[in-house]
Structure formats: structure tokens, C-alpha cells
Amino acid sequence: ERRAHSALMLRKASKKWDTCAGEALLRATGGVVTDTVGRRYDYAYNLNALPNLSGMTASLDVDMHCEMTNIIRDVIRPLGRYPYDVDDPSIKVGILQGVQTPKLGWRAVTVDVGGTLIEPRERVADVYARVAASIGASHVTPASASTHFKAGFSRFRGADGEDAMRYYGDGKSFWRKVIAHVLTDGATRDDISQDTVERMLDALYDYYECPSSWTVAHGALDAFDRLRARGVKIAVASNWDARLPALLDALGIRARVDAVVVSAIEGVEKPSPKFFQAVCDAVSVDADAALHVGDDIDNDFKGATNASFAAAVLWSSQVPSGDGRDGSYRAAHDFHALADAVLAANHDLPANTDDTAQLKTSLFF
Length: 365
Hints:
- By secondary structure, the protein is α/β, with parallel strands linked by helices.
- The protein has helices at residues 16-28, 62-76, 124-134, 142-155, 172-183, 194-208, 220-229, 244-250, 263-266, 273-283, 297-306, 335-347, 354-364, and strands at residues 6-9, 32-34, 56-59, 108-111, 118-120, 214-216, 233-238, 259-262, 290-294, 311-315, 331-332.
């Protein structure tokens, strides 16, 4: 009802059913719900663990919430008292739990595009089947399109050779092969002309160049604003064709980030360390002060790790977040939660050097 900025219950007095639906509503409008000291609850962890053992704090504004829980945490944590003396298994594993914060804090967050920052508004298979029908290729169904698109996307590159990239220039040398694979039912038909392939290619390019064909991840741009306001740079880092900057402009993303690095423009793609070095150069930040987030284990998580990034986070709602050991992955699927983790780590930097003290002053005041 917006009659209060925050609600605090600094004791075990609420249950999961009290906060779950309310958190969904608040998050949809830019708010947040956490425990007493800013940690998020995992409602799927154990349905028998109904009480919110570590208290509850809810706010309309994420920035204000973080400042408030930072103050509470700064007071309580040195004492080791509530909620730090409570064993609460329903507290989510922190996105950066176990990660050593860079000496001068996190200076950059780099973000993958497809499957992370933006998603197609419609299922790709449905779009392909519809466009195919519009040019007379009615044999293409959503099911067949899904099968052959996935196979073609994995198999083809934009040029010949083992080291060929997926995208060159406008990407048509790659997408032409994928579309032909879909139209020919995986190269099992010989009645599809090159003209039919070109017509479908042009129609799909027109469709996917339209910003209304895409959705931006919920909360991403607001989270970017929060990070940039505190001195953390944001770089978009994507294996994509050269049309990506124009699409990001149309989606209102480009003005909210510090750099856009695209494989077809750089001439190198993820997971190459050279690509990640180009990303760091674009924002003038060393890899050991940067965090990368993306949805591909090889291109994003392992690529950034091998490029000596301080941390990599897998963008996934399906993979339980771990600490990066024993084959687990640090995972996230909420840009505000990611921003919270980065800003909390920077806030908690020990002010034991002149450089660190100066950095904290620039980040928070």
C-alpha cells in the first residue's frame, strides 16, 4: 500500500507463507525481502522449514534496503549475535560466498547477452515454423524446427576451418546454414531452393532486428544503475554479430552500460582469453577485479575463469548455487541479488589502507 518504506521483524516471528507471495510482489515492483542482515531466503530448500529463523526485512527501494541491512550487519556481526548464532538452512548460498573480494573491491561486472541479459519474446521454434509457413514451407513444425535449429546452431560456424568463429559481420554466413538445416529437415530434403532459404533469412532478420521481439531480464537495468552509481563499471560481452549494438540501442540498454564488446566486431569470441581481455580493456579494469556472468558453462563460466577473472557466475534458475568447488557453479538468476552481492562485498572491505579507504568513500558517499 506504500504507506511505509520498510518493514522490519528482527526476530523469528514470520513464516515462509507470510513472506513468499509478498516478496514476489515487491520484487516485481523493484523492492526486496531478506533476512535481518540482507541475506535472501530459499523457499524451495525445505518445505518443512517454515519459520523465517533469521528474521525479516522488506523494503520498497533496494538501495535503501541495502544501506539499512549494511548498518544492521556492521553492528551485529562483530558480536556474533542474532541472526549469526542461528543455524538457518533456508538462507540462500551467497552468490559470492567463498570468493575473495579483490583488494580494491569489484571494479567491473561483465554480462553476456543472449540467454542472460535478453531473451527472445517467443520461442525460437515457433517463430521459425510461422515464418517458414509464410513462405510456403509448411512442412516445418515447431517440433522439427526445435530439433534442427539446435543441431544446426551447435554444428555450424560462419566460415570454414577449425578455428572459425560463429559470427562474421552481419552473421548471415552462419544463420544461412542454420536456416537451411531447418528447412531441409536436417539435410534430408532436396526440394528447398536457395531462394527459399534467402527469403526466410530476410524475414527472420527483419523480425529479430525489432526490439519488440526481445525481453530484457527483469531488474537488469536498475541493477546496472545501482552498480555504476557506486563506481562499478558494466560491460556487455557477447558472441553475436555486428548488429548487436544497434539492437541494444533500440532496447535502451546501451546507454545504461559502459562498454559493448561483440565477437564479430572484435574478431575473437568467447571462450578465448583474448576476448575477455578485450572486455577488460574496454572498461580499463584488470581481470582480477572483474566478475563475469553468463548462461554458458564453457563460453562464460569456464572462459572467464581461464581468463583470470576474479569470479564467474553462471546465469541459471535451474543450477543450485554452490561455492565453485567439487564441480558446483556459483549461480544467479536475479540481477538485483547479483548487485547486492557485489556492493555488499565492496562495503565490507577492510579500511586498512589509504587506497581502500578512498575507494569506499567514492563507492558509498
